[in-house]
């Protein structure tokens, strides 16, 4: 009897093998041969799904982004005070558990690879800047952002702050642990929001 292959599941299996290889060996180790071995497939079978290495890497990169997007969309749909929701969404962008740390490691590896490969690189491809702008806009429109602040500068500062925390957590996981990430981000958000916004949590 002919075995039915779920091609979408097979692509996902290959992409997850790619992410494991990148985390273990870096982008230099993400060869078609290594990925095929990690996924338990022959080179020919792997090339049936991804004809080039770039095609495979792009698919794997999108997988990381899509997983983060799903988690954020789930938070958006939950009924909770706006300050708490914004805070939790921002924390989804940061390595606050082992799975997100793994995703962050491969995302930085992808970013460094594309910046150095000579291909066109869009600094906004991860969607973080756009998300930060929308979150602060929601706080401002709801009257929860401190009115004396420069909205444009605060948006840029929060974007840089989130990227900086992510990088520090990646480079020094012992010092910038999960608890510290939560505490620092919470402290920053309370410093730019009205007192009423986070008192509503109680």
Automatic annotation (TrEMBL):
A Pfam family recorded for this sequence: TetR_N
Note the superkingdom of the native organism. Answer: Bacteria
What InterPro entries does the annotation carry?
BetI_C (IPR039538), DNA-bd_HTH_TetR-type_CS (IPR023772), Homeodomain-like_sf (IPR009057), HTH-type_TetR-like_transc_reg (IPR050109), HTH_TetR (IPR001647), Tet_transcr_reg_TetR-rel_C_sf (IPR036271)
Report whether Transcription shows up as a keyword of the record: yes
Q: Which UniProt keywords apply?
A: DNA-binding, Repressor, Transcription, Transcription regulation
Does the keyword Transcription regulation feature in the UniProt annotation? yes
- Where along the sequence lies the DNA-binding region? 31-50
- An example Gene Ontology molecular-function term: DNA-binding transcription factor activity
Where the record annotates domain HTH tetR-type, the positions are: 8-68
Name this polypeptide is given? TetR family transcriptional regulator
Organism for this UniProt entry: Paenibacillus paeoniae
